[in-house]
Design a protein that fits this description.
The protein has ten helices and two strands. By secondary structure, the protein is mainly alpha-helical. A two-stranded antiparallel sheet has the order 1-2. α9 crosses α10.
């Protein structure tokens, strides 16, 4: 869950750690994530009152299911500390045979994928909440994304492409109670 939301929202790990249920406004059409909540004295690396709107249906549906039943002040990823998430991430990527990368690689991959799919550097800068163009260039290395993809086991690459072609369909098979047909 955290992986989907981090990738989609180009989130920093600290932003995930602070995210509470009350920070996820949902108007039944879109979900947003409010980051750097000033009322709680929080800030992101780039300041207070930041945010992002999730763009993929599968991240929105997964998040809606995940936060269902949480109280407003509950942390969205309350059972996952930063260190346990890094440990789980390492175990998962190792089990999948993926080349080693830290969880922050989700932010890099999400930004590079946006550029590869046609987003402008300005769009990515705004979505990722970066202050400078130099930061965006550091993250949007589509050649690294392609090199990483090329290094994957061919069967894993096929599975990943099937997921990307129909993420909700694949996730419905894996977790039918989470992903509905809505």
């Amino acid at each position: 869950m955290r992986t989907l939301v981090s990738y989609d929202g180009l989130l920093r790990q600290g932003e995930c750690d602070k995210l509470r249920n009350e920070d996820v406004p949902d108007n039944d059409h879109q979900c947003a994530l409010l980051l750097g909540v000033a009322a709680r004295g929080e800030r992101t690396k780039t300041g207070v009152r930041q945010g992002v709107v999730l763009r993929t249906d599968f991240a929105v549906q997964a998040l809606r299911h995940h936060i269902g039943g949480l109280q407003p002040r509950d942390h969205v990823f309350r059972s996952t500390t930063a260190s346990s998430f890094r440990r789980d991430w390492k175990a998962l990527t190792t089990a999948l045979g993926l080349p080693p990368r830290p969880p922050h690689a989700l932010r890099h991959a999400g930004a590079a994928e946006l550029v590869r799919s046609g987003a402008t550097m300005g769009d990515v800068k705004l979505r990722g909440r970066w202050r400078s163009d130099a930061c965006v260039r550091r993250y949007c290395k589509t050649h690294d994304l392609i090199a990483y993809d090329a290094a994957l086991d061919p069967d894993l690459r096929l599975s990943a492409r099937a997921f990307l072609a129909d993420p909700i369909g694949i996730l419905r098979l894996a977790a039918p109670n989470v992903f509905t047909k809505n």
